[in-house]
Amino acid sequence: MENEEALIEQLKQRDSHAFKTLVEKHKDRVFNTCLGFVHNREDAEDLAQEVFIQVFDSIETFREEASLTTWIYQIAVAKSLELIRYRKRKKRWAFFRSMMNKEGKDPDRLAVDHYFEHPGLALEQKEQANILMKEIEKLTENQRVAFTLQKIEGLSYKEIADVMETSVSAVESLIYRATKNLRKQLYDYYSNE
Question: Which fold has domain 121-193?
Answer without folding.
Answer: Arc Repressor Mutant, subunit A (1.10.10)
